[in-house]
Amino acid sequence: MGNLEKFLEYISEVFEIDQSEISDELTPDDIEVWDSISHMDLMAKFEEEWEVTFDVEELTEMETIGLIKKALIRHGVKL
To answer: I want to staple 14 with a disulfide (CB 3.0 to 4.6 A). Which of 8, 42, 65, 66 is the partner?
Structure first.
């Protein structure tokens, strides 16, 4: 499984949505279960999977799926 597939799988799992519903524009307002706890759960999965570490500022700026993707790319993850 490639990185993009893992990325989508983790989002689908944590936010309890079908992968076909995932788009870069999605925000916490669009996903009922996207709260601070599920956000941190998702970030922990990404940090463990790709051995990256997000600082507090990055974590608070990831307000869309697209911004999460960009943060991972900045850390060298090829999506």
So the answer is: 42
